[in-house]
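Justification of resources, computational component.

The compute hours requested in this renewal are based largely on the per-chain cost of generating structure records like the one below. Each record pairs the submitted sequence with a full structure-token output. That output is archived, and it is also reused by downstream analysis tasks.
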Amino acid sequence: MRKKERALKLIACLEHDYPDDLCSLSYKKDYELLFSVRLAAQCTDERVNQITPALFSRFPSLEAFAEGPVEDVERLVHSTGFYRVKARDLVAAAQMLLTDFGGKVPDNMEDLLKLPGVGRKTANLILGDVYNLPGAIVVDTHCIRLTNRMGLTEGKDPAKIEAELRQILPPDKSNDFCHRLVLHGRAVCTARRAKCEICSCAPYCKHFTP
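The structure output for this chain reads:
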């Protein structure tokens, strides 16, 4: 089975299994998603969702973040790990959004990558979730593990995997597909074990052995 054909089969299976609520991070404003993704590095989305209500209440605007004491941000994000660098990035990003981008989250990869703490994974998520731009591909640990197992990609280099997926995924499906990989990676195709016996993707997955 060719990779493009395999990808379409897998997309259909995951769409059936996970039809709704694709992004597991809670947010109301565009920059809140940006900041939540930064906090989620080396941390679970669940933990981030637990601390952001207090964080966004204490700092209800970009101006508040930009002017607020970094120490206060550190205290509120402490449980997400690497809290000092994360707090510094959030404050610096708020300042840059205000001074360089008119208080708006950029809608293009080049400008997003200028923001402190933002890499291609975060930028792609913003482009896909906030701006609904086709072709956004979020390569995280779930994406790497599952696309390798499924036979869509090889290796662990995020840039290489993003390029490979860009060649085989329909642009209008790529962002949601990556979100569904996260949900599937947590529920079925876990890091510890691929539960092929209950996986709807098994017939089209390279890892599955009947």
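The radius of gyration is 18 Å. The chain has two domains: 3-22+135-204, 30-129.
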